[in-house]
Structures are given as structure tokens and as C-alpha cells.
Fold these 3 entries.
Entry 1:
Amino acid sequence: MKMIMAIIKPFKLDDVRDELTKQGIEGLTVTDVKGFGRQKGKTEEYRGKEYTVSFLPKVKIEIVVEDEKLDTVLDVVQKAAETGRIGDGKIFVYEIERAIRIRTGEKDNEAL
């Protein structure tokens, strides 16, 4: 099993969720986060004065999938989250050793 963690622009969340649903992915976790990468924030103006916003709002999506679905899900997330502009985000993949559904006790792939 693999965990996919994607950091994306907030307005792309619905697109990503819709495309994952089409692929049969039934569960994901979403967290509002802030951060910066190569953008290094942005400069805005308020009441005539400029100030720098160092941390930009993003959304973190976490999805656990069977190994066989990994490449498909990565492709779906990347294409659905892409705007072609700086700050589109990143995708990370982690190995998951165990998964247990609390309610039923199902383990590993059956727990997904």
C-alpha cells in the first residue's frame, strides 16, 4: 500500500476529488495548510502599503491506495491539479506498512 500526499491550490480540490471518484477512489483526507516553495510568497498592497505574504494557502490531500492503483492515481491527481502556473504544488508517495479499519478490524487492502 502507498500513501499519496499532494499539496495543491485550494480551488483545484473539487477537480481532483471528482477525477478520483471517477477512478473508484472512495476515501481521502483533506487538510488546509500554508506554505511556500519556489514562489517564496507574494507581495500585496493594503491601504497603500505593500506587504509580503510569506505563506500561501494550500490544501493537503492524503490518499492510501493499493500498489496496483498508484500510477493511475498519481496521473489523475497531477492532471487535475495542474494549472500550468508556479505554485501548482507537489506530490509525495510513502510506503504504508499496515492499515486497519477500526469498526470491523479489516486489515491492509481490505481496510481501504
Note: The chain has a mean pLDDT of 90.
Entry 2:
Amino acid sequence: MEEVDGRAAVSRETIGEVDPASDEARRCLAAYGAELDARFPEGFDPADLVAPSELRAEGGAFLVVRAAGWAIACGIVRPQAPGTVELKHLWVDPGHRGRGVARRLLGALEDWARDHGAREARLDTHATLREAVGLYRTSGYREVPAYGNNPHAHHWFAKDLGAPRRPARTAPRRGP
């Protein structure tokens, strides 16, 4: 019976974009930062998280997964270069792991990126986050040379997102 109940709970989850400065986003990031601090042998400084103002300035997105109206997971899409985004801070509340939430959230982040003109997604992760490494490998990501300056990264990945599902947002054309 527990398995059936777990599947029913999963079907009621929703994924949506929120303001990165919202209380909901801050709660998710605080929980994510606390978990990294506990898991990383070197610790983790919350100042290393993407700032809401940075995300807004870059034109990215903060997505959350909600169950019963409560945010249980989050992830960020951050433009990196034309046609390329970086996925950051993919986190699922420990009580909701093992149900495919992270895989669905990763797919939603990729869809958002593709819908906004990205053809490639990149991400990095720490060696102690073995479940994240496994998720990325089984989701079509390939290891690539190091990029960026994340002091906590040990693995770097990229994935070809293919063609956008809809045209990228561009400035209106002027003139004849």
C-alpha cells in the first residue's frame, strides 16, 4: 500500500517558475546550502549560491516542484553563452527522494532552456553527490573538461538539447 500511496503523491506534484527572491526560493536554497555544508568535507559557504539579483540580470529561471502546495525541490537555469545554459542548485528535499522528482525537475529545466533558445545545457557537481552524478549520466549528459570557477566542482557535464521547441525570444524586427 505504501508504494501506491507514494505514486499517488507524485502525481499531485507541480513544477513552476518562481521569483528567485521569493520566500519559497530562499527556503529551498537555504535547505540546499545546509545540506551541501553537511555533506561536503570542506564545508559550503551559502555565499557561493546564485544570488537572485544575478539570476534576474542574466534572464534565467528558478523552478520549484511543489507537493501539497509546499516546495519540495528546486533548480536554476542560468544563461552562460548564446545557446548555452548552466543548470545550478538542483535539490530535492530528502523526504521526497527516490520517486523520480529530480529526473522530472531536470527535464523541466531542460525544457525551459530549450524553449528559451538554448541548444546545450551544462552543469557541474561535487564528487560526494554520487546520486547527482548518476542522474546526469543516465539523463544523457556527458563529462566535459572543466569550465567555470566553482571550487566545489569535481565533475562537469554537458548535454545537447537539440533544436528549441519554439523559436527563441528575440527583439522585434524593425524596418521593411
Note: Residues 111 and 126 are 24 Å apart (CA to CA).
Entry 3:
Amino acid sequence: MDLRQMEYLVALSEERHFTRAAALAGVSQSGLSAAIRSLESELGTSLFTRTTRHVEPTEAGRALLPHARAMLEQATAARDAVVQASRELSGTLRIGAEQCLGVVDVGALLERFRRRFPQVAIEFTQDGSHTLVSLVRSNDLDVALVATKDHLGGLITTELGREPLVAFLPPEHPLAERSRLGLRDLASETFIDFHDSWALRPLNDAAFAAAGVHRHVGMSVNDVHTLLELVDRGLGIAVAPRHVSWKPQATRLVTVPLPDQGAPEWLVSAVAAPWDRSGSPAPYLLELLADPPTCGGAGPTRLDLDAATARS
């Protein structure tokens, strides 16, 4: 058994779907399947039951899961201990993030950074993606974790992951029985969405406009829990990233996929300014974003801010 197999086991147990698990682990579906088969062969038992629609851990798979998580946590702690012992870093890290990015566990990221570099002060700001990009440009933030592709020209951008957006409907809604919805199917609906500074609003506005739909946003909010509550109360529908459906407030809601072509996509990136950052803690933060425990997709083995390529 190796750590990569344990990572794949955890991803497949959480996603219950080979394609989604492979995307989460940053590997091809065939690579993930081969690793799981190899692990099952080594242990002499099946770890998952497979059907055409989903995957379920067997009793053996469920028994192995907590040990797999423990192995990954111990490996992470070991790496952190080595880094802490071999590098002395001080100063201040100024980081911002939009709420509920999904692709990145911001709390876990900051905790790990503090554990690795206890001498570095952390200043954290939560705001909308467009505001955070402006703060990076004005040198008021070192790094921002955002979900926008707008106004990034000249900034160093590292993609962290992406996922589809889905429609959120109250269970009694007439469209709740549909297996898939086109953007034009929603033309007559009242929408609940975020204010303009948050990434989701302009993303949705642009997608519906491109589809020729002039949608009516009846309510604008500043947090995802309020958005879900208002949908649950039948006050409108919402289009939001798929991971929002995992929140307890979304338990009653129906999520319906949008078409593969033309639907908006939630893209999360780390952005930083390209000017001199010698001695800055920012490159070391980006290293952590390559590790599966803090980022949904496995990125490169090392992310170096000074060597990253600027792209719009």
C-alpha cells in the first residue's frame, strides 16, 4: 500500500464515482481504476462494489478508510515537520479568499501554513473575487484565492480546480423532476444570486446573456447559507457550484445538472502580482496548494510563484 493508493481510496469513497474521484485526485480515470484494482489485488479482497451508476465501498473498504485517512494525515504532518525544521521564514502573509470556494479548504490551508511557518504572521481577508483581485493589484494582498477569470491579465495565475454549476430548486418546483436543464428552460424563473462583487453573479450573468436569456434576479445575497434558505422557502431558484449541494442547508433542495455546452463553469485560481517577492511567504503558501489535503485537485509537485507563468 502506498500514499497515492490511499489518496485514491479516500477520493473514491467520498465521490462514489470514478470520473469525479479522478478529477478530485488530479489523475486520469484509468490511472485511478488501475491503482484501486492493484490495491484490491494486494489485499486479496474487493474494496468497492461497482454499478453503472455509482460506486459503494464494501465492508472491507469502509474498514480501510479511517486507516487511509490516518496515513495521509501522518504523511502531511511529517512533511510539515521537515519543512519547519529546514526553513526559517518570518514576515507577514497577506491572503484573501472568496467564501465557499469548494476546490480549496481555506481553513486547512491556513492551519498547515501556520504549523509549517509559525514565525509568519497571517492576515486574512474574506471578500468577493473582484474585490480581492483589486487588492492584489494595489499590493494590499500577497495572494488571493478567487473564482473569476476577469481582470487577471498581468497577474500570476495558478489554476487550482474547476467544477460545473448546477441549478438549485425547491422540491415542489415544476422543473424539479427534470434530469437536465438548459439555460433557456430557466428564462421565466426568479433567481436568487450574489451581489456583483462575488464571482458567481457575473459568471451567471454572462452565461445567461450568451444564451439569449434575460433573467430576473429578485434577491441578492452575500452568503451561501442565505441563498440556500431563500431557495428552500420557494422564493426563487439559484445556479451555483456543485459543491454547494453538500451543505446541510441544501439537504431538501433538488440539484439539476446544466448542459455540458454553454453552461458556466466554476474555476478557482490563486492569483498574485508579478513584482519582486524575494523573501515573501507567498511562494511557500502556493507550495501547500499542490498538496491534496488542502486542494481538491492535485496540482504540480511544486508551485513556485517566481517561476509561474502569467496568463490572463
Note: Residues 295-312 have pLDDT under 50 and may be disordered.
